[in-house]
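Final report, Chapter 2: Outcomes

The project's central promise was a pipeline that accepts a single protein chain and returns its three-dimensional structure in a standardized token representation, suitable for archiving and comparison. That pipeline is now operational. To close this chapter, we reproduce one record exactly as it appears in the project archive, with the input sequence first and the structure output second.
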Amino acid sequence: MPTTSHYFFEGTCKWAKVRKPDDYDKFTIDLYPTEESLILFRESNISVGIRTDEDGDFLRFNRPRIKMIKDEEVDFGPPKVTDIDGFELEGLIGNGSKVIVKVSEFGPYNGRYGHRLEEVRVMDLVVYEGNAGTVEAIAPDSVKPW
């Protein structure tokens, strides 16, 4: 019989797209887990591959914005994002922020387990700065602003 379990994974994040879905209509976060969280992840049935880049091993958790369940469209919306005290956090999460992610594991369905990113608790925020430089438009003297 299918069941749902909840896991809490701690680590450093990159590419936290938790405010606006990506091109595949999913909210995502790349988590570089602590050693303890990586052990916990390996003990779970969550079917997410461990990826590697120049910063080490990471897990990409996601949450669909909308999903069809039993012929009904369910709007999950974005994951909850909170600060260290559990209060709602506004703004974007910068690369290198220390976080704890809450992930639901559900299944098995057809022998596989699914997951859904439920919450991101930001323990140490690195402020997202976007493009490092500023762009300044300079109009010639002959151009009059409207």
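Archive annotation: The longest helix spans residues 35-43.
This record, like all others produced under the grant, will remain available to the consortium after the project formally closes.
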